[in-house]
Each structure stands twice: as C-alpha cells, then as structure tokens.
Write a structure and sequence with these properties.
transmembrane, membrane, transmembrane helix, 13 helices, ABC transporter permease, about 0% strand, two-stranded antiparallel ribbon, ABC-type transporter activity, elongated, mainly alpha
Length: about 300
C-alpha cells in the first residue's frame, strides 16, 4: 500500500497519474493536448502494481515452495518402496524419486487438478473486481483510461503472472529434483525411459498445453470479475464451477456430453509420458480451452463496456 496514504485506491490513482503526460492546452474537440489513449496505464506500471501486492508475492512464492514441501514429504517415506522402478506397473508417483524429470512430472500431477486452477482464478478474478472493491475503478476510467485498454492491460498482466506461476512450478521441481535425486532419465509408469533433453522438451509441451487449456478458467474468472465488485466471489465462483465440471466429467451416465465439458481433456498432457506422444487428446483439449476462453472473454468485455461503473 501507499506509504503516504495507506490506501489501495491512492496507489491505483498515483500509478495511473504517473503515466499521464503533463497537462496542456485542449484542442478543438476538448481533448487535452498530448493525451494519447494508447499511452495510459502502461503494461509495466500495472505489472509493478500487481507484483507489489502480497497475494501475488505469496502465490508465486508458494509455486517455488511446493516442490520443497513435496521433497520433504517424500523423505519420510520408505526409499526402497518409493524406488520400485523395476516394476512395470509402478505408478509415476512411486517413481518420483527416480530423478529430476519424474519429480517434476509428479509435482505437476499434484498441482494441475486444483492448485493451478486456483492460481489462474486468483489472477484473472481479481482484475476488475479488486479495483471496484477499492473504489478506484471509476477514478481509473475518469483519468481517462479507455475501458477496452483498461481490460486489455489487466488481462495481459494477469496472463503474464499466470504463465510465470505455471513455469515456476516445473522449473523449480526439475532443479530441486536434480539436486536431490540426480538428472537421470525420466522413467514412465510403463517402463519407458527418456533422456534429460527429451524430458525438458516434454515438460515444455506440458507447460504449453496447460497454459492453453486453462485459458477457459481465465475467461470464466474474468467474466465473473466484471460481474461483481467482490474479488472473492469472482475467484471462488470460478473455482467452484471448475470443480463442478470435474465432478460431472466423472459421471459415466452423461455419455458423450462429457466430451463437451471444458475439463474433460484437462489431463491429456499425460500423453507426453508415452512414446510416441499422444497428441490427439491434447489437440482436442487445447482447442476446447481456447474456444471456451474466446466465448467467456467476449461476454466479459461486452458486459464491461456496458456496465454502469459506480465504484
């Protein structure tokens, strides 16, 4: 918060004002000379604002801390049991201590079903609703920052923070796993082995798939963010609806309807653990995520353009 005002609204107003050129004479249309809508609320200014927030620092810090917590938890187990790598039916979790690649993949398995959804919901659900809750949204628009530009800059920063969080997790797990268990080949549950180079390439594919497939969660959180003035409601609503989709996907009686659920292909990235890689479900999951994201972001932008801003 501002060391002078101790108020988030003041922080937002000061940061935005710093990006506005010095006032000058107005032209014939009444627009101040030197005012350029495209120069308001620069990406760097908004990014620095978000990085100073405790929730951003805590979230990114937790993505680094989670692999450490998992490594400590694995240390309490029976090493002989955990290293049952000769078993063709061993699960990827059993192989977590086989090397850096296995440890990174296990960390992603633990995080993909819930943690990453919460993180993305937090960054995107907080975009507009937090400004409204601080009563700074109307001041940003009155500066004036055009509505579409405000949304674009907010979404770009939320996307950058989400991608950073998704990257931090496997990178930290890979480095920590290498230090603790060595940079040996990744061993899959069916006994295939991948070199370190192939492991890094497949981790990159997993990160790319997660970043694309989870865009629908970002779109949902954004739509809820422009629909409410309560950030917790937007974040919680996105998480709950995602969990609902996951539950419905487990009900076999729904048959082919499950294929249309946005979470149906959420774990298609495990196809990278087979040789050759199974691309079919990952491609379907990627297009499904992008399709839902375009619809949800579209509705969110339309709602924000017409919304009566009172806070």
């Amino acid at each position: 918060m501002s060391p002078v005002h101790h108020d988030r609204s003041a922080d937002a107003a000061i940061a935005a004002l710093e990006s506005v050129p010095a006032p000058g004479a107005a032209d014939q249309s009444g627009v101040a000379a030197g005012y350029r809508p495209g120069k308001t609320l620069p990406f760097g200014v908004e990014l620095r604002r978000q990085l100073k927030r405790r929730r951003t620092q805590f979230t990114l810090g937790f993505m680094v801390l989670l692999p450490v917590i998992l490594a400590i938890a694995f240390a309490f187990g029976d090493p002989a049991k955990n290293r049952s790598s000769n078993s063709a039916r061993a699960s990827i979790v059993d192989l977590a201590q086989n090397g850096a690649g296995n440890f990174a993949m296990v960390t992603l398995i633990f995080a993909a079903s819930f943690l990453l959804i919460v993180v993305i919901s937090l960054f995107f659900g907080d975009t507009i609703a937090s400004e409204a809750s601080w009563s700074s949204l109307r001041y940003l628009l009155a500066l004036p920052v055009p509505r579409i530009r405000l949304v674009r800059q907010k979404v770009l920063v939320a996307g950058a923070l989400s991608l950073t969080a998704i990257l931090l997790l496997p990178v930290t797990a890979l480095l920590l796993g290498g230090v603790l268990y060595g940079f040996g080949p990744l061993q899959t549950p069916v006994g295939d082995q991948l070199t370190l180079g192939a492991t890094v390439a497949r981790l990159a594919i997993v990160v790319a798939f997660l970043a694309i497939q989870l865009t629908w969660v970002a779109g949902l959180a954004f739509l809820l963010s422009v629909s409410t003035d309560a950030p917790l409601g937007a974040v919680g609503g996105a998480v709950l609806l995602t969990i609902l989709s996951q539950i419905l996907d487990q009900i076999d009686a729904l048959g082919g309807i499950r294929d249309w659920l946005p979470t149906h292909y959420a774990f298609a990235w495990t196809g990278t653990l087979s040789d050759p890689i199974r691309w079919d479900d990952m491609i379907r999951g990627g297009f499904a995520g992008l399709g839902y994201a375009l619809i949800l972001f579209g509705f969110g932008v339309m709602r924000f353009r017409r919304k009566d801003i009172t806070s």
